[in-house]
Amino acid sequence: MKLEKLNIWLTLATNIAVVLGILFLVIEIQQNTAAIRSQSSIAINDSLAHLDQALYADPSLADIWLRGQESQEDLNPIERERFKAYMLERLNLAVYIRELERSGSEDVHIDWITIMNREIVEKPGICEFVASNQPKPEDFWKPMIDDCLSRR
Q1: Beta-strand (E) ranges in the chain?
Q2: What dihedral do alpha carbons 63, 69, 71, 77 form, nearest 10°?
Q3: CB under 8 Å to 141, separation ≥6 — which residues?
Q4: Domain spans, the chain
Q5: How far apart are CA 73 and CA 101, in angstroms?
Q6: What CA–CA distance (Å, rounded) separates 31 from 29?
Q7: Is pTM beyond 0.85 here?
Q8: For the chain, the helix, strand and coil percentages under 3-state DSSP, each to the nearest 5
Q9: Cα 17 from chain centre
Q10: What is the DSSP code (8-state) at residue 135?
Q11: For 75-128, how does the pLDDT look when each residue is reduced to its tens digit (9 = 90+)?
């Protein structure tokens, strides 16, 4: 009789410990998710600040950026390389944000992908650049590229 009671109490204590352990894990996962979202937001904000700073600090890059948005043909080879590097940073940020959205860990303050899509559709130089630098036609830029190319 004593052994049965002890067994019942031990089973109850074990079950309570398991439930408490699961609750602890749920709380830890929630805190970890919040930390990941916060770190992602900080990384995105830092990237946006870096992109903006590049234009603020370098008037020649701002000029290249403005002319390159309209046409790649107006840029000399050095300017094309600078435009390419800047544009690839912008596109890379959009791809990073898209991956964060897919994983559910983004906490973006602005809709960067919509901004990039609008630029691709509305700016001929950006459309030209993206169309010529995307190796995979199934890439998520394809609808915007097709749209801007069809307007020519």
Answers
A1: none
A2: 50
A3: 91, 120, 130, 134
A4: 44-150
A5: 35
A6: 5
A7: no
A8: 80, 0, 20
A9: 40
A10: -
A11: 999 999 999 999 989 988 888 888 887 777 666 667 888 888 888 888 999 988
Residues in the chain: 152
Which one, of 84, 88, 111, 89, lies nearest residue 100 by Cα? 111
Q: Is 110 helix (H, G, I), strand (E, B) or coil?
A: coil
| Contacts of 80-83 spanning 24+ positions with Cβ under 8 A | 83/125, 83/129
**Tokens 């000029």 -> residue:** 63
Residue 143 corresponds to which tokens in the numbers above?
């609808």
User: Which is it for the CA torsion 92, 140, 116, 107, positive or negative?
Assistant: negative
Q: Please state the separation of Cα 130 from the chain's center in Å.
A: 17
Token output for 145: 């590229």
Strands (E) across 64-146 are located at: none
- pLDDT tens digits for 36-68? 777 777 888 888 888 999 999 999 999 999 999
